[in-house]
Design brief:
Structural class of chain A: alpha/beta
Distance between the termini of chain A: 57 Å
CATH topology of chain A: Rossmann fold
Number of helices of chain B: 17
Distance between the termini of chain B: 30 Å
Strand content of chain B: 15-25%
CATH class of the largest domain in chain B: Mainly Alpha
Largest sheet of chain B: 5 strands, mixed
CATH architecture of chain A: 3-Layer(aba) Sandwich
Number of domains of chain A: 1
Strand order of the largest sheet of chain B: 1-2-5-4-3
Helix content of chain B: 25-40%
Structural class of chain B: alpha+beta
Radius of gyration of chain A: 18 Å
Radius of gyration of chain B: 23 Å
Oligomer: heterodimer
Strand order of the largest sheet of chain A: 2-1-3-5-7
CATH architecture of the largest domain in chain B: Orthogonal Bundle
Order of helices and strands of chain A: HHEHEEEHEHEEH
Amino acid sequence: MVNAFSCMLKKKVTEDVPATDPEIEAIGSELKSEADAVFSGSIAIRELDSGSDNATEIEINNLNNAFYDIERFGISFVASPRHADVLIVTGAVTLNMAGAVKETYDAMPSPKFVVAVGDDACDGGIYRGTYAVLGGADAVLPVDMKIPGNPPSPKQILAGLLALMRKARDR
Amino acid sequence: MAPITSDHEHQLRGITGAVVPPDRLVCGPAGEFYLVVSREEFEKLAGILAVREYALISMFCAEDLVPTHTTSLLYVFEKRGGVLVLVTDADTPVPSLALRFPSASWFERECRDGFGNVFTGAPDTRRLLFHEAYPDGFHPLKKSFRNAPIVPKPGDGSGDEYPFRTVLGEGVYQVPVGPVHAGIIEPGHFRFSVIGETIFNLEIRMFYKHRGIEKLAEGKDPKDCVRVAEAVSGDESVANAAVFCMGVERITGIAVPDRAWYIRTILMEMERICSHLGDQAGMLTDVAFPLGASQFSVLREEVFRQNASLSGSRFLRGMIVPGGLARDISPETLASLETFLTEFRKRYRIGLRIVLSTASVVDRFTGTGVLKQSLLLPLNITGPVARASGSRADVRTDRPYGVYAGHAPSVHPLSDGDVLSRFTVRAAEIMDSIDLILRIIHTVPAGEVRTEKPVRDGYALTLVEAPRGQNLAFVRIRNGVVDRYKVRTASFCNWQAIEHAVLGNIIADFPLINKSLNLSYAGTDL
């Protein structure tokens, strides 16, 4: 047990930032300037799992770790679709989730964007043409950007979001 | 590296000998025992197995397995690594085992949905896998159903709402949560009955992510089916690929080269480290301790990067194939893993010390979400969650596979069963996994990493200790392709623990308890 006094006297528990990856920094700073220009400084994303194998969720969560720290680029994940600019859909859309997927999209204010992340969300992947799924995210929602991968790495997701920003600028 | 021990056989012969002649007990290719029984024998044996404290670890249906049955039900009983499969015909209604073996309830509902089996006296006959969008009388696992898109039931399903078990009374109110949750997590529905802030009852509804994994596997070449096994649950890709491939290897009689088994073990333990770190980071996030959460997230990212350099995939996908490995890992890569883990162990200890010396964290963890040991057997709760509630069960020691026979991990059971115990058990297991890898990494034998052999027909039932506990696969090969693939992850059973662990806790502690149980939605919903 540590008491408050010894905490004050002790060396601070901080560490250096993990090794920075110039590629991520470059994508990030472009993302930031696009977010400033197109989204008035910040982009709110709501993540929705419509039937993934959970690997994609893990990679999206990893965007928040200190290696990527996506919030410094003006991107944050929000709890409610009502606060979201962008809906990220992971996984093929299962029959059991289709209703919730549509309701989540409907709850978002316009203008809104949909990004399919991962092979299964892009086109149904290995589940395409089976009883349990309707297909990729585009089977039920208008999809603006697809980021394929099994699953895509955090860097690929960042690059995909940058591509979305550029597309949004034209819209 | 056969897991067959005469102890198991001796014990099972003792039990079944009282009911059936000894020659009917048949040993399967993976050291599991099968016994085809009549209805009367089934009931007698189920009674004996219940008294002998065997767990019902899985139950599933298969068509054309036994010459005398059109459809058969396979009941898988296990105790300390000994596995007995009772096979009974499912052509007529079967008495429900749910009251004697509570784990049977979800299994029976799953069979009823998949095949249309009828269980007499079942306490719960609601559909499990299929929600409102599915038409009535839909049983896709029957061979007569060709896997193709179906027409969802029209309407929004509001007419036939799922009847939740709820508690009524003065001051009791319901809190519905999900399927879409507030964080970056998988979907599921939780229905709380709450008095004030205290949870009085919880019923979970899962299977929103039902993707038809078992049907998808059918007709596939076993080596193509590994991709399906990896999709069962992303963070258990290695475990599920391994348990599937072990089945195929046993059926075909393939001896996996030693080098492949050593490397597989390294991959399986890396997956465990990664999974446990994620849980620990999540638990710390849920008690608002970002310093610790960030420490573990950074370490975890580094493990992901090691995974990528070992296999080309951050989730170690595409490495395990029937017969061994898809490709070798160079000695240089293994040497750099050793350097990494040696350093990692020190930094992990520092992170752990910070967390466990923070009073606010320990206070939130202690006494929260207690899971009683008496629930482990009836619900077949396994893995670190069970080991935090006093269990010593671990497939790696109870039914060793690969190199675990010579390198059994130490089991450190804790008995408090609270969030703190689950956190601590995982910490000990991370250290053990590091030690195990560092111990075997020097002795990885040279040689091939794959034995190729044409696939033979047959069936086998295999078990592994995945990060979350006992994962099971039943594989049947017929005419060279997968005819039946039943997978039961630890999460399928462990999810039912949450309904008990939250009782009496406040609703604000639910996310923490949920995270501490680390349950895979994808691995349950299939």
